[in-house]
Amino acid sequence: MIIGVPKEIKNNENRVALTPAGTQEFVKQGHTVYIQSTAGEGSGFLDEEYIQSGAQILPDIESTYAKAEMIMKVKEPIEQEYSLIRENQLVFTYFHFASYEPLTHAMIKSKSVCLAYETVERPDRSLPLLIPMSEVAGRMSIQEGAKYLEKPLKGRGILLGGVPGVRPAKVLILGAGIVGTNAAKMAAGMGADVTIMDINLQRLRYLDDVMPANVNTFMSNEYNIREMIKVSDLIVGAVLIPGAKAPNLITRDMLKEMRPGTVLVDVAVDQGGCIETCKPTTHEDPTYIIDDVVHYCVANMPGAVPYTSTLALTNATLPYAMQLANKGWVKACQDNRDLALGLNIIKGDVVYEAVAEAFDLQHVPFEKYLGEK
Description:
Number of strands: 15
Shape: globular
Structural class: alpha/beta
Radius of gyration: 21 Å
CATH topology of the largest domain: Rossmann fold
CATH architecture of the largest domain: 3-Layer(aba) Sandwich
Number of domains: 2
Order of helices and strands: EHEHEHEHEHEHEHEHEHEEEEHHHEEHH
Largest sheet: 8 strands, mixed
């Protein structure tokens, strides 16, 4: 198969979908790999390293899309890329369709095959290609939150871990999945007073057993959230419904109950955000203020630490990408149900139910394309 890796063009996105090591694995299997020039530089990988691994370097994004049967990316295609995607071309990347209708319609129009990292799902409901970036984003949410709590950045002016004789900051984490758990670990390690909320009592019991003493668990409901936001300094939104838009757990009216300088970090912004006043921001201009509350809503948080993020992501995606390259997407998805659940749009049909529901579109089961009943 011919694999193309374009340079990411989303604002301050420095990750790349394939490392030189991954390139070498594809070439060993007899595949052809095209890398757009400088695609890996932001993550610390030079064109020369890709060439040594067997890749061919192309000068621009147009030629990379034109030659490839499978496009491997990190972030969803943006408007400049829509017209480059061809009918029947396989695009393997994060899409987050339910949060952005224009992208959904553009991919329907392209008649390409869109296989989304974020909905590849194991039988235990875990999301193997979302986990590594959720780990990065969860840890970064505390790192960034701690920074924006500083007074020059319009925060409350509180040190996350406090000092002897001074109480630490209170951190509230909404959601006890991968993002929330990693955020809690980081916040606890920095000495904060941490509360993690979820609707899954079994998950809360597990975290209560394994987390340090400065992490408390609390059942998530509107009443409890309203009580906690009054006393929290940093609030992290870490809620995910696979493939669907995130629910709004913090509404506009709740901001008035928070103390001035409270910091909100919405890690769910890729899926529409779990904070009503959330709107996607960039690393270039990461925050805005509403009702004296600082909002940090960067849609590609792991892009700020591209070396770590690229290696973590490609460790997870490469085995699946290899199956797609070796077998073609139809056979690979027939053989691996986890991969089949990553199918979102096929040749103009929306085959992922949550995406169809988000925009009131017709849902066509993906089994139609895999020859299954």
